[in-house]
Amino acid sequence: MSTPNPVLQAAAPALVAMLSAVQQFINDMGADPAKWLLNYPGAKLKLVGSIGLQLPQLATAEGGALESFINGQLAAWVKDLQALSPPAA
């Protein structure tokens, strides 16, 4: 079993909420094409608002995951380089 991508794992809740908003947009538009012109303005406003509310959460999650990855990578490089350098006299 492969380890999950930490960046995707951090973003998953916000992405699920965004996809749910798209599903809700489709439901709000309705099945009757004759009413789409009437339903579009409200459905679009609701979709844009729902997705917009997820952006700060997504940015925070992605930023935290990226920071964690960078810190881990830097620590690994330092450890590897310290193993190569001769001991101080």
- The radius of gyration computed from the alpha-carbon positions, rounded to a whole number of angstroms, is 23 Å
Number of strands: 0
Overall 3D shape: rod-shaped
Number of helices: 2
Helix and strand string, N-terminal first? HH
Helix content: over 70%
Q: How much strand content do the residues show?
A: under 5%
Total individual domains: 1
Uncertain stretches of 5 or more adjacent residues? none
The major sheet is characterized as:
none
* CA-CA gap between termini: 46 Å
Mean pLDDT: 90
Seen as an oligomer or otherwise, the chain set is single chain
Q: How does this structure look, described?
A:
The protein has 89 residues and is mainly α. It has one domain. 82% of the residues lie in helices and 0% in strands. The protein is built from two helices and no strands. The chain has helices at residues 6-29, 36-84. Helix 1 packs antiparallel against helix 2 (36-84). The longest helix is centred in the C-terminal third of the chain and has 49 residues, at 36-84. The protein is rod-shaped, with a radius of gyration of 23 Å. The mean pLDDT is 90.
Essential attributes:
89 residues, single chain, mainly alpha, rod-shaped, 0% strand
Helices and strands, with pairings:
Blueprint: H1 6-29, H2 36-84
Write a concise synopsis of the structure shown.
With 89 residues, the chain is mainly α. The protein has helices at 6-29, 36-84.
